[in-house]
Design a protein that fits this description.
- By secondary structure, the protein is an all-alpha fold.
- It has 3 helices and no strands.
- It has 2 domains: 43 residues; 40 residues.
- Helix content is 73%, strand content 0%.
- The protein starts with a helix and ends in a 9-residue tail after the last helix.
Length: 95
């Protein structure tokens, strides 16, 4: 078995960590979100804070499902590229 596949199987490779070009943008956005959350949270009463926390938890669940779906779709596309690269179809013309 491939070392990469085995490491991925055991959870030692995090796909989210593989993209480094977005880190500055992600960190900037995360900082903005934290500042706005703090400002909003400071202005809410206790009941609204509870509602806000429930909203955030539900939204995080939603994003988790969407991220998993995107990951699966991307993985399938990558597998199709790999398959198409190594499996020659009979209807292809050889140049």
């Amino acid at each position: 078995m491939s070392y990469f596949i085995e490491e991925f199987y055991y959870g030692n490779i995090e796909p989210q960590e593989c993209t480094t070009e977005l880190k500055p943008k992600v960190m900037k956005c995360l900082n903005e979100l934290a500042q706005k959350e703090k400002h909003l949270f400071d202005t809410l009463n206790d009941e609204d804070k509870e509602l806000f926390n429930d909203y955030v938890d539900t939204y995080i669940s939603f994003l988790s499902i969407c991220n998993a779906d995107s990951f699966i779709a991307g993985f399938k596309i990558g597998a199709r590229f790999t398959y198409d690269t190594f499996v020659e179809r009979k209807d292809n013309c050889n140049d």
